[in-house]
Design brief:
Elements lengths: L8 E7 L3 H22 L3 E5 L4 H9 L5 E5 L17 E3 L2 E3 L1 H13 L11 E5 L4 E2 L7 H7 L4 E3 L2 E3 L8 H11 L11 E2 L2 E2 L2 E3 L3 E5 H4 L2 H13 L1 H5 L3 H12 L5 E3 L5 E3 L2 E3 L7 H4 L17 H4 L2 H13 L1
Parallel strand pairs: 1-2, 1-6, 2-3, 8-14
Antiparallel strand pairs: 4-5, 6-13, 7-15, 8-13, 9-12, 10-11, 15-16
The structure holds guanosine-5'-triphosphate and magnesium ion (MG).
């Protein structure tokens, strides 16, 4: 079916080829199908480094969405001194791989210039561990478009001091040097200092032209050259909150409080207890395989998430 859509938009993922990640991705796509895309039929672009043809076939088989794979290769940008970029960084009780930091840089600013997105006006980012838990009965892109929303988010949290080191000083200098009047950044300031708030960017729906605008690109380039993404793991999440609250009027920003969404221990508009486990039984058909991830992220998972995984394991 070749229907003409009034809003040009794509759902985007960045995926790794590890079996656990692929299992999560398939689960994420299945939930996307039943809860949104069977009805609205937007293309899904999956960026990856090393997913082979066979795996691509398997992923395609697992979803009714139209999938486009786009290979990316990550490297430390030439303007940084590689000697100063450690392979692993240990901060705030966590360990961040080089791949993780490449991912942060990609989502912070690089993705918006990828040729695969050039014909789109909006994107919806989901991660391989992003799960839509209930039906969305309206077109989220059309919704953004009609109300002139440029950034849509699901939640706001606060990051740790180590992984945001120097980010505020760098941003403050940028604001001062460029005589900027931040739009609503003061909401995230306390005693004249940014309070390390971030948008939970494993879910974000946004207009691409904002991220391709000169004002954002200049700010991103400034941060990029400062090197904090690689030295301290400045995340796309904090960078996006700063950029949005500096450059966009608050009236252009929307929180999707109605969408039932899960990422690890975070549940949006989906009561995780006490009846989540019985409601999740409906998902038995979709959630075929339990996904138990290794790595440092595991220890950050909440007790609730562990119970959720245990439940899925038992039920599948
Ligand atoms: N290709 C590729 N994808 C990555 C890499 N690191 C992360 N990703 C993907 O980028 C998205 C975000 O990564 P996550 O590891 O989930 O990041 P996070 O949500 O901040 O951290 P967690 O708490 O571990 O979930 C996911 O879809 C990952 O599959 C990488 O090194 N290479
Ligand atoms: Mg994640």
């Amino acid at each position: 079916m070749n229907e003409e859509k009034s809003v040009k938009a794509a759902i985007v993922y960045l995926a790794r080829s590890r079996p656990g990640d692929i299992a999560e991705l398939k689960r994420s796509l299945s939930l996307l199908d039943v809860n949104f895309n069977d009805k609205f039929n937007y293309p899904v672009v999956i960026f990856h480094e090393d997913i082979n043809e066979k795996l691509m076939g398997k992923i395609r088989e697992s979803t009714r969405s139209q999938i486009q794979f786009e290979k990316v290769s990550f490297k430390i940008p030439d303007f940084l001194n590689k000697e100063e970029v450690p392979e692993l960084i240990y901060l705030d009780g966590d360990c961040f791989s080089m791949g993780y930091r490449h991912m942060c840089r990609f989502f912070s600013g690089i993705i918006f210039h990828h040729p695969a997105l050039k014909d789109y006006d909006y994107y919806w980012r989901l991660d391989t561990d992003s799960f839509l838990l209930d039906k969305i009965d309206y077109d989220v892109f059309q919704f953004m478009h009609e109300r002139n929303f440029k950034y849509g988010y699901i939640g706001i949290f606060k990051d740790e001091p180590g992984v945001t080191r120097d980010l505020w000083d760098t941003t403050k200098k940028y604001i001062e040097d460029n005589n900027l009047k931040p739009q609503f950044l003061q909401k995230f300031m306390s005693d004249g200092i940014w309070d390390r708030s971030y948008y939970y960017t494993n879910f974000e729906i946004s207009r691409l032209d904002f991220w391709r605008s000169e004002e954002f690109m200049n700010y991103f380039e400034y941060l990029d050259r400062a090197g904090g993404i690689y030295k301290y793991r400045w995340g796309d999440a904090v960078i996006h909150l700063l950029a949005v609250s500096i450059f966009l009027p608050e009236s252009n920003v929307h929180r999707f409080s109605d969408i039932a969404y899960q990422h690890q221990g975070f549940f949006n508009n989906y009561s995780p207890s006490p009846d989540i486990f019985s409601r999740l039984k409906n998902l038995k058909e979709i959630i075929k395989k339990p996904v138990v991830r290794t790595s440092n992220s595991l220890k950050r998972k909440s007790g609730l998430y562990r119970r959720f995984i245990k439940f899925v394991k038992r039920e599948s």
